[in-house]
Amino acid sequence: MQKENLKNKIREASEKVRATNPLAPSITNTVTINFVANAQLAVGGSAAMFYLPDEGETGAQIGGAFYINAGTFFPVYKETLPATAKKLHELNKPWVLDPVALGIGSLRTEMIMAFKDFPPAIVRGNASEIITVAKLWGLLSDTNAKGAKGVESSDSVESAKEAAKILAKFIKGAVAVSGKEDLVTDGETVVFSKGGSPFMEKITGAGCSLGGVCAVYAAVTDPFTAALAATQHYNIAGTRAHKKSKAPGTFQVKFIDELYLATPKDIANNPFEIV
Question: Is the model's pTM score more than 0.90?
């Protein structure tokens, strides 16, 4: 019954995204900005990319949700990111945090720490990033996990399960952990979504763009359903694109196509397990 209920929520969220084209603005890293916008458009959302402090606050006002990605930092972000997060908090708007490259540079760490006071509705990252955020916010004691030291994960998805649950409970939202099988939790229910493609590790921006798509879904549904629906959408598209591709370059193009072509029923029926 719980699985069928989740499938229904995923399908309904996907249908609503396609029907309403929700705007989910982003402050995302410059390496993947094009991919993020294209993915948001392909799933049925609308995209807008911001940079300056007043732009971020305006984006918070006009968007149904917002996406902040910490992958590339500029000095102005010291003003932009806290101002945007604060405005989103004041407006009670959901936003998604992707703590890319946490552990590199003091400014990035300072900004992620500041977000604790204006927490996101969804945190999306690899296992090491999720563990590091939980530790940085004082939610997790030392574990055997290595934590984040760059853009690649040095920890397994399974090793991040407890950190993800604790973090999700703290933000009163959802956490999505990317890996060979993706984990999504609201702090109580834990779901493993299956599918995707090994080529996702051979292109830049697969994870970053997933964060943007999480924000699109967050504009129309609750954080847990949004994170799971976005992950399911990515995994079915990745599986299908992989079958039509011989190498990463072709895969990237086919992947955007499959994000666009996947139906709400396809997305809901992508294999997943509740543990």
Answer: yes
For 217, list phi and psi in degrees, rounded to 5. Answer: -70, -35
* Dihedral in degrees, nearest 10, Cα atoms 41, 42, 44, 46: 0
Number of domains composing the chain: 1
Range of the domain at 14: 2-274
Q: What gap in Å lies between CA 178 and CA 91, rounded to an integer? A: 29
Distance between CA atoms of residues 203 and 123, nearest Å: 22
1/80 Cα distance (integer angstroms): 44
Distances (CA, A) of 114 to 84, 86, 109: 12, 10, 9
Q: What are phi and psi of 136, to 5 degrees?
A: -60, -35
Tell me: the pLDDT tens digits for 176-219? 999 989 999 999 999 999 999 999 999 999 999 999 999 999 99
Position 152: which residue type?
Answer: E
